[in-house]
Each structure stands twice: as C-alpha cells, then as structure tokens.
UniProtKB/TrEMBL annotation:
InterPro entries: Amidase_CS (IPR020556), Amidase_dom (IPR023631), AS_sf (IPR036928), FAAH2 (IPR052739). This is Amidase. GO terms for cellular component: endomembrane system. Pfam families: Amidase (PF01425). PROSITE patterns: AMIDASES. Residues 24-464 form the Amidase domain. It comes from Amycolatopsis regifaucium. PANTHER family: FATTY-ACID AMIDE HYDROLASE, FATTY-ACID AMIDE HYDROLASE 2.
Length: 483
C-alpha cells in the first residue's frame, strides 16, 4: 500500500494498529522526495539520516506501549524555523552557512509530539515575496504547473504537501504566507489568531531567538485535510514557556456549531481596490452554494463589515513599516524625497506603501490605534455572523516573475494588470486585526489550477473556521493530488 497521500489521522491509526511502521512511512517519503523533488524543489534542506533515526525511536516508543499526538508521522518544517544543526538562511546569501544550535519552540513541540522531521522547505528572500525563490536554494515550482509559482513565503511547504512529501508542515503568515501557497497548491492551511502560537526561534538568521511577540506575523499548520490542521494546531498552540507560559494555560473554546446548516456566514468576493478574477469568484460561489444548500444563513452584504479600503491601507502601513524596520532600505534620503513629492490626494496602495517606508513611531501608533477600531468592528460583526468567506488572492497561481524590482511587477487579473502587492489586500483582511483564517480548496480553475478561499473567524475562536472547513470538505471535497 502507498501511504504518501494518506492523512495524518489515517497514518496514526495505521501506526497504532501495527499496519505500518514509522520507518516504513519515512523511507517511502524519502524515496518520493528523491524521485519527484528535482522538478518541484520544495525540500531545500534534507535531514534524512536524523529522520531515519527518529523513525526508529518512534517505533521503539510505540513498541513500549507509549503514544503521542504525532508519533511516527513524517513532517516538514519551513526553512525559517531554527532546527539545531540545519541551516536557517531565510534565503539570504550572507547567511548561507548559519547553523543555529537550538530548535525553535515549534520544532521542539513537533519532536515532543513524536513527529519525524524530513527536512526544511523553501522560502523567498527574507520571506518577503508571494513566490518562493532565492539565490541559495533556487525556485520552488507549482506541482500543478511547473511554470507557475507555488506561492510564498510558505511555498515550499505547500508544494511538499501537494506532492506527498510528508503528511504535515509548519509555516508562517504575515502577508498570506500560509494561505496563499495553500490556495495556489490545493492544500489546507490555518493562520491562527495573533498570539495563539508561540514563535520563538522563527527568526532571521544569526538574530537571537528571544520570545518576542510579533506584530501581524504568526506561525501555523499546513495539511491536506481540515481535521489534520486541527490536529497540528493542537500541538502548536499555547504560550511560550519562557513568558506567558509560566502563568497561562490554553483553553480554546469549541466551535460555535457542529452542523453546516447552523452557521451564519457573510460571503464577500468584491474589493474596492482590486477586482476578483472569474476563477476565484467561482470558487467563492461554490462555497456559498454549498452553505445555502445545507441550510446555513448566508448574506452577501453587511453594514457591520469594516471599511475594506481603510482596512487595506492600514494593513499596508503596518506591514511595510514593520518590514522596513527589519530589513532597512538603503536609499533612505532618496525615498524620503520621493514620499515628500507625493500628492496629498494620492491614496493609492502604492503611495500607502511608500509613505509607510518612512513611518515615524508616532505614525505607527496612530495606525495601531486605528487597528483597535477595526478590531472592535469585527467583534460587532461576529456577534451577528460566525465566519466570513472571501478570496485569498484575486487569481490562481501566476507564472514565475523574478523581476528584481518587486514594486514594478504586475499581476494579471482576467487580462488587466494591477500592482503586484495590491493582491495582498485579501490576506490583510484577517492579518491586520489578528483574526484566525483557514484556507480551504474549492476545486480548480478552467485551466486546471487549484482555487482556494479563506474562512475568517472570531479572534481566539480558531475552532470555528476549522470546523466550518471540515464540514465544507465533506460537502464539496478537498485536496486532490496533482495529475
């Protein structure tokens, strides 16, 4: 029997019954990677010797009658997480030889749960792109069309799952970095509520792995089913033991509903700043039809929805000001002169990004205060609705675009071009206020490319969009292996 595309739940059941061993699962995964990853280039750092040793230990542990949540299951880890003895580069050439000495807290949790780590997955330069390519490791291709991107920045993880390279993966999300690759590759991902999952050790190379609380960015699970997402989130969730973990224990509330027909859902597919392509709109409509057909309350408009233009602008301000603080621009004086020359009437997202590059601390505090206004708006919305269904990006996976000037790139939406980074407005809808969002496959485009949507839920009620994702998977189907 071939195990590579079985769910993590199915693998655990087979391991517990003795139908397969972790060594057998691991060897099959390694053989598949060695055979198929030459074209995909998802696994940028292989750790096969230690994976084999971990699989042996998992089988010995099970033989003693012990069990753990992921005991013996092969998994992968995004390159940006520290794994002791393996390079953490974030695709940055000056750090190609950096080897951390300690595991990230999420890697520790994977190992404690008994997972077998096969290796690390590819990322873009500095995790700063919607694609996954860099000078050190090269380009990760889309398993459905090798001429297209797998997404970013967790593109290697999404491609690995689509190809059967392990049952689970962990990634991160600041600008849709979990959800966009899942959408492009036809798998599942969950962006947790901001602060739900500890991120220590998911840090740029050579920086100290302090337990800082990140703004916007989260660590999260990726899988081939919604139930596997929930399984992995249970392993990942919880405060850092070095900080709030000394006093706090996690107790997520249950999903608001168990039946699809009981959900109250707001469905939106139009954004004032960028159109939604026909293929993605069809994916949203498919989910809406499944909800209506199951008896759910579905609305297409609500005055409770926070202003989308203001939300997108605010997201860009917080995103870009934070990114520039971490990765400074070289021509600061020239940039400030450029910003000073912008018209006061220019409220485009390009201008918002440029202005954010020279934000003062006062500017950031004003944006942060406005974010709290939006968070309160979402609380009011989720008193009337249980989830919001919307796009992740306006299009399916697009062709590789390695133009060294990202600001000059364009995304093609049904024959019309738009600024490359404007497509982030849908991802930012959940990221800016820190809401949980689950990416779910909804079928394929006329060209055969995967299409996904996101299910946004109330803050710290992550089990609600995850449960909705599971119910929708039963209704409309889920992951399909690339042909």
């Amino acid at each position: 029997m071939e195990w590579s595309f079985q769910t993590a739940e199915e693998l655990l059941a087979a391991l517990r019954s003795g139908a397969v061993t972790s060594v057998e699962l691991t060897e099959e995964a390694i053989a598949r990677i060695e055979r198929d990853d030459k074209v995909i280039n998802a696994i940028c750092v292989r750790d096969f010797d230690r994976a084999r040793a971990a699989a042996h230990r998992a089988d010995e542990t099970r033989a003693r009658g012990e069990d753990r949540p992921l005991l013996g299951v092969p998994v992968t880890v995004k390159e940006s997480y520290n794994v002791a003895g393996l390079p953490t580069t974030w695709g940055l050439p000056p750090h190609r030889d950096y080897l951390p000495s300690e595991d990230a807290v999420q890697v520790t949790r994977l190992k404690s749960a008994g997972a077998v780590i096969l290796g690390k997955t590819n990322v873009p330069l500095g995790l700063q792109d919607i694609q996954s390519f860099n000078e050190i490791y090269g380009t990760t291709t889309n398993p459905w069309d090798h001429g297209r991107t797998s997404g970013g920045s967790s593109g290697g993880s999404a491609a690995a799952l689509a190809c059967g390279f392990g049952a689970l993966s962990i990634g991160s999300d600041l600008a849709g970095s979990l959800r966009t690759p899942a959408h492009f590759c036809g798998v599942y991902a969950h962006k947790p509520t901001l602060g739900l999952v500890a991120t220590r050790g998911m840090v740029p190379p050579s920086e100290p792995a302090f337990p800082t609380e990140l703004d916007l960015a989260v660590a999260g699970p990726m899988a081939r089913t919604a139930r596997d997402l929930a399984l992995l989130l249970d392993v990942m969730a919880g405060p850092d033991p070095l900080t709030r973990g000394v006093a706090h224990r996690l107790a997520l509330p249950p999903a608001r509903h168990e039946r699809l027909g009981d959900f109250r859902v707001l469905v939106i597919d139009e954004h004032p700043l960028i159109p939604t392509g026909a293929a993605v709109r069809a994916g949203v409509d498919r989910v809406a039809a499944a909800l209506v057909g199951s008896g759910a309350r579905v609305e297409r408009h609500s005055p409770l929805l926070p202003d989308l233009t203001e939300a997108a602008t605010l997201y860009m301000q917080l995103l870009i000001s934070g990114s520039v603080a971490r990765f400074p621009v070289e021509s600061d004086e020239q940039l400030r002169a450029h910003v000073a020359g912008l018209s006061a009437d220019d409220r485009s997202l390009d201008s918002a990004r440029l202005r954010a590059m020279v934000f003062s601390h006062r500017d950031w505090l004003e944006a942060n205060n406005l974010r709290e206004v939006h968070r309160h708006g979402w609380r009011q919305l989720f008193a009337e609705f249980d989830a919001v269904v919307c796009p992740i990006t306006p299009t399916p996976a697009f062709p590789h675009d390695h133009d060294p000037d990202p600001m000059g790139r364009r995304v093609d939406i049904d024959g019309a071009e738009y600024p490359y980074f404007d497509q982030l407005v849908w991802a930012g809808l959940a990221t800016m206020p820190g809401l949980p969002a689950t990416a779910v496959p909804t079928g394929r485009s006329p060209e055969g490319l995967p299409i996904g949507v996101q299910l946004i839920g109330p803050m710290f009620e992550d089990r609600t969009p995850l449960r909705l994702a599971e119910l929708l998977e039963r209704k409309i189907g889920g992951f399909e292996a690339p042909k």
